[in-house]
Specification:
Helices cover 47% and strands 10% of the residues.
Length: 599
């Protein structure tokens, strides 16, 4: 796991650990013939869930101050000695670094300096466009076959329960009601309930339904009302329909949800150049959630070369504690991580979960960031096993313990030759500045990042460290920030590695290609050029967790190299002139800082 202690600059890795695939890409064919084939694994009949089976390490895991420690045997664990050297950043150091960052971003002269540097970066990009726009267009036109429509684009921030548009969900519900009206979908008061009965209780039938009655689209009434926005996940305002159609863990074992996800996957396959990384929830109420989720994915064969999963963890400990589902925050963490450590130590202990984890690329922390909380982290230093209050731990407390345990888990999985995970929390959507400090220290990438516009020192740090930011302007427009005020074009001009994502197509989009909607509206509103759009698409692939070999196929064999050496215009449609400008500007900024330090 990446950590940025003491504000040292590290190159942010653009992908996780490369995964072993069974087929190599050949680059000898023409571009057109390559793109007429199914991407990457076309014609190869493989078990999509096939994966390596490392041996049982028989390690013993123990919790200590909220973090898992691994031992080679039970005797070492009992004596609490000779723990495996899977290190992580201690909580105390994290708090010290957070305090130091807080002092930095509040320093007046530093804020002025960073604001001037960011203004300079904006002006420098405008000058580059004035001088090179025509040249960039000519270079793009000289590339045969490739254009914005057939460069790879990844939706790096999209929630699985709302990855379809409202018309798609409506048609699916009406079709299912007509074809499976007498299918039992729930048990109420000990009696079976059919799908027909569910709709009869609402006094509706398939003919009555329309998108207005479905009422899943965000509107003007959701602005700054996260509670109303969450209610839009309930079709017709009924939680029972959400339970039946949009949940993996229900009476039908998520069959309907799996079917509609597979229809979305079929649309992606038709589109061919769009890929998604949907987020699916683990609530941490009990340890069986991981097994149920994995069984749902594997048994329903919810798999595609166009899809990789992220798990989102809602910060709802306080609700579970009030309902007495949990005794303390340690139980929350145990329910999240114990199954992962067990299956990573011994993959045969849970074959379905082992298979599912090969398609999982990372974790997200989600909730309404605007909820008030105590910003003083020093007052919350008690370990998770002692956190038995009904008050929710602060954001920075949540993300630290997720990061620390992911760090140990990744080192264990690396030793086992398995894929590792990244941390991509919702961060800076509406919360205080210290959330962004935590994201800077702990996260590989973040989602939203709107609040960076108010803190120039933080924004400059994110630029220098090249931390990817998945931005969703249409989502923000309905929730927290009107479209014309969105800082995305400013971030892009200054060189922050931003991407465009949809967040919730069910609530915000109208067509079968929501990501293209996001790009087209941004292009019209902010006058983005074809080169700008292709650069955003390239950023999305770099940010994504798709395997290294697939990224080589999409971006070029040397994509991990910095600057123009890592760009292949025949695949990305981004001219080397643009890539060289971004790289040279970043190097100049770093040189300026180091020279100022020496003086």
């Amino acid at each position: 796991m990446l950590y940025r202690p003491h504000i040292k600059w590290h190159k942010v890795p653009v992908s996780g650990r490369p995964r072993t695939l069974t087929r190599e890409i050949t680059t000898t064919q023409s571009l057109e013939s390559e793109d007429l084939r199914e991407p990457f694994l076309a014609g190869v009949h493989l078990d999509p869930w096939a994966c390596p089976q490392p041996p049982d390490r028989k390690y013993v895991s123990c919790w200590k101050n909220g973090v898992v420690h691994l031992f080679r045997c039970q005797e070492d664990a009992d004596k609490d000695e000779r723990a495996l050297p899977f290190d992580y950043v201690p909580f105390k150091q994290y708090v010290e670094d957070m305090d130091r960052l807080g002092d930095m971003i509040a320093d007046g002269p530093l804020k002025s300096f960073c604001f001037r540097r960011l203004s300079y970066l904006s002006s420098k990009f405008k000058m580059h466009v004035l001088l090179n726009e025509i040249h960039e267009q000519a270079l793009q036109k000289a590339v045969p076959h490739r254009d914005f429509y057939n460069v790879r684009k990844v939706d790096t921030h999209i929630h699985a329960a709302s990855c379809m548009n409202q018309k798609h969900l409506l048609r699916f519900i009406k079709r299912t009601l007509r074809q499976n009206a007498n299918e039992i979908v729930a048990i109420q008061n000990g009696a079976p309930v059919t799908l027909k009965t569910v709709f009869e209780n609402m006094k509706l039938d398939a003919y009555d339904l329309n998108v207005d009655i479905l009422d899943v689209h965000a509107d003007r009434n959701t602005f700054h009302r996260f509670d109303r926005f969450n209610a839009k996940y309930n079709p017709v305002g009924e939680s029972s329909l959400r339970e039946v159609f949009l949940k993996t863990d229900n009476y039908m074992n998520g069959t309907y949800f799996a079917n509609i996800i597979k229809e979305v996957i079929a649309d992606l396959a038709d589109n061919k150049y769009t890929y998604v990384e949907p987020r699916i929830s683990i609530y941490c109420k009990n340890k069986n959630e991981w097994t149920k989720l994995a069984t749902w994915a594997v048994h329903n064969n919810v798999h595609s070369p166009h899809l990789r999963w992220l798990v989102q963890v809602p910060r709802l400990y306080d609700i579970y504690r009030i309902k007495k589902l949990l005794k303390n925050f340690q139980e929350f963490l145990s329910n999240l991580f114990d199954p992962l450590f067990e299956v990573s130590i011994n993959p045969t202990s849970n074959p379905d979960l082992h298979k599912f984890l090969t398609q999982l690329i990372g974790f997200d922390s989600v909730d309404d960031e605007s909820k008030p909380e105590n910003p003083n982290l020093m007052e919350h230093t008690k370990p998770p096993e002692e956190w038995d209050d009904e008050e929710n731990p602060p954001y920075n407390y949540y993300v630290y313990y997720m990061y620390a345990n992911m760090s140990v888990l990744n080192k264990l999985r690396t030793e086992q030759g398995l894929n590792t995970f990244v941390f991509r929390p919702h961060c800076g959507e509406a919360g205080p500045a210290n959330h962004l400090n935590a994201g800077f220290l702990l996260a590989q990438n973040i989602s939203h990042g709107l609040m960076l516009r108010k803190t120039p020192a933080q924004q400059y740090l994110y630029y220098l460290s090249q931390i990817f930011i998945a931005m969703s302007p249409l989502s923000n427009n309905s929730l927290f920030l009107r479209y014309h005020r969105n800082p995305m074009p400013d971030y892009f001009a200054r060189g922050l590695p931003v991407t465009l994502s949809t967040d919730d197509p069910l609530q915000f989009h109208f067509t079968k290609e929501p990501l293209m909607e996001e790009y087209s509206i941004a292009a019209q509103a902010w006058k983005l050029s074809q080169c700008d759009m292709c650069e955003l698409a390239r950023n999305s692939v770099l940010q994504s967790g798709f395997p290294h070999e697939m990224k080589q196929y999409w971006l070029g064999e040397e994509y991990m190299h910095e600057g123009p050496a890592g760009n292949d215009i025949t695949r990305t449609n981004v001219p080397n002139v643009r890539i060289a400008f971004r790289y040279d500007t970043l190097i100049d900024e770093l040189d300026t800082l180091f020279q100022a330090r020496e003086e």
